[in-house]
Amino acid sequence: MKLSTLKRHMKEGTRNTWRNSWMTIASVGAVTTTLILVGTFLILMFNLNHVAEQLEEDVQIKTMIDLTAEQSEVNQLEENIRSIDEVGTVEFRTKEEELESLIESMGEQGEAWEMYQQSNPLNDVFVVKAADPANTAKVANEIGTLNAVDKVEYGEDYVDRLFTFNDYARNIGLILIVALIFTAIFLISNTIKITIMARKKEINIMKLVGATNGFIRWPFFVEGLILGVLGSIIPVALTLFGYYYLTHNVVIFEQFSFVQLLPFTPFAWQVSGLIIGIGAAIGVWGSVMSVRKFLKV
Amino acid sequence: MIDMQDIYMTYPNGVVALNGINVTIEQGEFVYIVGPSGAGKSTFSKMLLREEVPDRGRIIVNNKDLSNLKMKEIPYLRRDVGMVYQDFRLLPRLTVYENISFALEVIEESPKSIRRRVMEVLDLVGLKNKARFIPDELSGGEQQRVAIARAIANRPQLLIADEPTGNLDPETSWEIMRILEEINNTGTTVIMATHSREIVNAIKKRVIAIEDGLIVRDEHRGEYGYEA
Ligand SMILES: Nc1ncnc2c1ncn2[C@@H]1O[C@H](COP(=O)(O)OP(=O)(O)OP(=O)(O)O)[C@@H](O)[C@H]1O
Ligand SMILES: [Mg+2]
């Protein structure tokens, strides 16, 4: 396509948006509403995912070493653990360190355990993390079969539930987002269709003087793009201001210091980009779809 | 240039508009189509642009066989055929200038040559001073001249004019005829449907008479042949 033709399409598209101002307001409203919801879902989903990842990070496998194991057997065990493909890190902790951290984690009640410092009932342990937390159960099972292992612990229930919850949240979020997007496309294409009835005669004439379908569709493409981008202004502003407020001024999150929201930069900007992209896609798709039926002349 | 064989055409409402048309028109000819109202003259013209499709029969325009023309090729057929519609078919929201330039934008002419050509054809039809008007602000005759200007703007091989003098005073009608003849002299085939006995009898050309969807007469340098 020639540059002058592209310019013509841009001018024509802009002019149509301007001229059909009611249609523009209605469509932009539909896009805006959709994108606010989509943006909220996106922020929720990504943060949920982020929190889950942080919790997953903490998922560790405690390999209790047999009390009777010789030093050479312990060395051999470490080597065996390291040779499992999915293993990420392996850390040795003595039973004294284990008791120490147990007492600490119990706080007040921990004092009751201090008497055990004389005859420590705990095992030395290897603290193992799978490279990918999703493989935790598999790694734990494999370690369980090795020599010199007394017991393997990894909070099975908690890990499994975490993964399941995360999957559900992600899928439901995605389905909702897709449903919202299609609703918006449908709304826009119908809104534009109302004004196209008036433009039907024009499209017909354009075809009779030899315009190709592509030529007629282009201004609609531009128009859709404009509608989409206009519709994403308020959602982007809400995302930026809202997320800034959330990450900088809301205090509850400080109490759960282990739960960190994704940092404002770059996350809020990335979501904004995504919102504009989705908005543009909704606008273009809706607009181009609306004209399809009228091109068969 | 044009070859029609056994063309039948029925509108969706059951009206039979063409009832077995056979005709050949050579490049560079000037042809009048005459006949009573409702005879099928406009339908005949629309066939040539593939605006209407025959039930059966074969049409060749500009060496293109319309019966197996792909959807994609239709715009290119139409660019070689200028059409002046009986009801003008101007774009109501565009100015006179834009209505004409549109036909040139479609074929991706450069903006500079578009500007030159639009002024040229506006000059030809005597509407240079109305370039910024929209169709609703023009008289019927002026709209008709805009339609002619648009049809000839991209120098088509074939110009079809459906009653181009229908709304004009006699003086302007002769002016339009002068324009059509001029275009015809440059080698463009001109087909003109008309009810004007004065014009047909004064400017002698080939005359094809259609009645009830059939060609009933085809004469070189013919007469109008109907009572006024
Ligand atoms: N779009 C249409 N739908 C149904 N019937 C139509 C349509 N257009 C034309 N007709 C019918 O087809 C027949 C031929 O019409 P056409 O317009 O070709 O006549 P015409 O010779 O151009 O008449 P006129 O001199 O009045 O312009 C008429 O009976 C008319 O009623
Ligand atoms: Mg007619």
Structural write-up:
The complex is a heterodimer of chains A (297) and B (228). Helix content of chain A is 70%, strand content 8%. With 297 residues, chain A is α+β, with helices and mostly antiparallel strands. Chain A has two domains: 3-55 and 161-295, no CATH class; 60-153, Alpha-Beta Plaits, CATH 3.30.70.3040. In chain A, strands 2-3-1-4 form a four-stranded antiparallel sheet. The longest helix of chain A has 53 residues, at 156-208. Chain B has two domains: 1-80 and 157-223, P-loop containing nucleotide triphosphate hydrolases (Rossmann fold); 88-155, no CATH class. Chain B is built from seven helices and ten strands. Chain B has helices spanning 41-48, 74-79, 96-105, 111-124, 140-153, 170-185, 197-202; strands at residues 2-10, 16-25, 30-34, 56-61, 64-65, 81-84, 158-162, 189-193, 206-211, 214-219. In chain B, the strands form two sheets. Chain B has a six-stranded mixed sheet, sandwiched between helices. Chain B has a four-stranded antiparallel sheet with strand order 2-1-4-5, covered by helices on one side. The A-B interface holds A 1-2, 4-5, 8, 19, 201-202, 205-212, 215, 297 and B 49, 51, 72, 74-79, 83, 89-93, 102-103, 105-108, 110-111, 150, 154. The complex binds adenosine-5'-triphosphate and magnesium ion. Adenosine-5'-triphosphate (ATP) binds at residues 11, 13, 15, 17, 35, 37-43, 86 of chain B. Chain A: Residues 175-295 form the ABC3 transporter permease C-terminal domain. Chain A: Belongs to the ABC-4 integral membrane protein family. FtsX subfamily. Chain A: The chain crosses the membrane at residues 21-46, 172-192, 225-246, 266-288.
Question: Which descriptors would you attach to this protein?
Answer:
heterodimer; A: 297 residues; alpha+beta; Alpha-Beta Plaits; elongated; B: 228 residues; alpha/beta; Rossmann fold; 6-stranded mixed β-sheet; 4-stranded antiparallel β-sheet; 10 strands; 32% helix; globular; binds adenosine-5'-triphosphate; binds magnesium ion
